[in-house]
Amino acid sequence: MKYALKDYQETAVSDLLVALERAHDQFGSGGEHQSVCLTAPTGAGKTVIATAVVERLFHGDPENGSLPVEGATVLWVTDDPSLNIQTLRKMYSASSLLHAGPQLLTIDGAFDAELLPSNAVTFLNIQKLRRGSIYEQSGTNRRTWSLWETISNTARRRGGRFVVVIDEAHRGTGNGSDRPTIISRIISGDQDQGRTAAPVVWGITATPERFQRAMSAAQKPSRVQRNVPVDVADVRASGLVKDIIVLHNPHGGPAADTALTVEAVRAVRGYESTWATYAAANDEEAPLPILVVQVKANVTAKDVSDLVNSLRDAWNGLRTDNIAHTFGEWAKVTHGHIPLPSGAGVRYIEPHAIQDDDRIRVVLCKEAITTGWDCPRAEVLLSFRAARDATYIAQLLGRMVRTPMARRIDGDETLNTVAVFLPHFDTAQVEAVASAFHDGAQSEDVGASEAVTALVACGRNSSVPDEVWAVAGGLPTYTRPAQRSRSNIIRLRQLAHLLAYNGIDEDAPSQASRVILGAMATRIEAAKDTGDLEEAVRAATTVRMTSTEHDLTTGRTSVREGSAVRLDPRGVDREYRRAARLWPDHIADEYLADKHKDGADLVAGKSELVALIKDPDALAAVELAAGGRVRELDRKYQRRIDGLPAARRAEFDRLREQSADAEVTQVIFPEGAIAARPSEKGSKDPLHLYVQTTDGLYPQVLNGWEREILDTEIADSSLLGWYRNPTSGSRALRIPYANDPRSAVYPDFVFFHRNPGDDSGVSVSIVDPHSTHLADGVDKLHALATYANKHGQLYTRIESVAKGEDGRLRRLNLCRPEVAAAALDVKQTEDIAALFERLGAL
Question: pLDDT digits over 455-481, tens only?
Fold first, then answer.
């Protein structure tokens, strides 16, 4: 792949490969037909996941030593030619191994073959298999083989190595039209026509129920089903989709259409300006945001003309050429040009071409544009649909949530949002759309983002002293470990490459090699010193002969142990090649080249490496050395890494996230704005690190305990500033559980006070309300105590706060060693309250 997969994507790829391997084996051994379903919400990168799976099917995976599947054949089926084109382009742009033509090809009029090509993805839209199509014909001057025959022959000859992919499977396996009939015939074959059923079917969808029902209903043949789900929470945490969709609606009459057109233009121009500022500060190319306008169903030529005039009036410099439409038909002309009274016109553009056409700033559409369409530049939606068409709006929003940089923007949270204007909705109807996102996050319609009806931008509080920001920037937080961690050897190589590429340490790659090869050499030398190496080499390169005798007169058979035969150089080389694949990143070959530069004793070197690789503890020892070097380099250069532009810093962050352990890093406080959610039931408070420019206050909603804690701190005249800690993202202070580092406590508050008697000193305190009765209470308490033991010197207080039996709040300051030790001794939830009563201060 041309870029690193997100943690959840890597997990999905591995799980899919295991599921496909089992499907292949079970079909081969017992003839049971199989189905596998990848279930992932919109924005998860289903095509990227599929591309990585296909790469490894065709080329193997050098990281874990898996071999390619010989003769693997993939038929990619959709009901939309445009979706096939988009998928092929995505695969080509994402893969470093798959090439358009030989391995990514679309069936066209020139295709006529007995079998589908192996080690290739062949794209087919089902329209080619409708009755009367030339692709149904065979044995004529026009075609030798029909597509039905080609598919059936491939299924018969390739068996479990033949995989039929049903993209957007929730659509293709429904009921009630010719479409599902064709796909069901591809899946199940046709005994009357002598067509073989697909051995393995792989569905890709956000809503698996329909696909799974279709697989269950297929009696001829029945199928073993396997599901590979992607958690919506992991997609939200990845930064691949926008965090928040902000829904706006007016409280006015007919003038709302024009008023919100102006507001939508202002919003898209605002994104453009913010992106430009961010990109200039981080040495990146700024994306050009797009305004998507969803017109009413029966739009007329006058409607389009009036809309274009309104857009051009509101948007200084907008040309007609900057506006395009995706209507399937206009004036009975497919993909027709829309003429305007001025003599100009609104041109048609294919949906998959929108993202890469820099001329386009406004797109007019009717419903959901097209299945699978995505355009990361589309950041504002103005919909003139009525409230009864909420489904169409939700479908379109699901297509607009991808982030332009394929990552969350830490510098300004407003760039992690999508703005939606709904002039024909009232407040209750807007709330209903927002609820759909909360209640149905895994549906194909709504994706993984969160919808809200109010959001404000809060910038850095200019009244907070510089020394507070300096202290805040050094607060330690922890990464969330990967579900499926990467090899430390590979992480060290990549970290060393990034350090060299960014001019931080040009010797890092050679030093990384010395660490890895040195750890291997140390293991071999230690085995030599104990005499274990010679015995291990002998065992690894010796074949023991046996002989079997059969007495024809008695009918008895006996087996006798024979002599041991050492492998010849060719045999050693074959054994070495097989073993070397088991270690990552070709390090066995590198060791061999480094230690045997002159070629002398090459057979002995290969034999030693075979013995080393077969040692079950050897790889762990090398991984341990590599992991130690990763942490050493990260600590050494953390400040220089944090000073890099955002895009380059994000590459280092991805490496940290690939660790099997929670690794320490620093909280990133955005230079730009953060997003806050005002509420009629909430409050606005002073001295927060980020505030609204209008009133210098921070809007939030607090419960009773939180309100009492904050009021107490704000009343202290030494308070310089405070921070409401979020529960995700790089600006969150994350403290992992000791027994499950993928789970964590996110303390509610961080307070910054002036040190008594020191005008330049700043003391920092963490305060976290901590209910004593909750199931994870012990885990949270242990996490805070462990954090205090490691980092307590940076804080005046790390307080866990709970309410006592008398109704008053009690505080455990875990910076005190005796309190932290007592907290770590707590084993049961029932004991937490007693600890607060015994040691908690009022």
Answer: 899 999 999 999 999 999 999 999 999
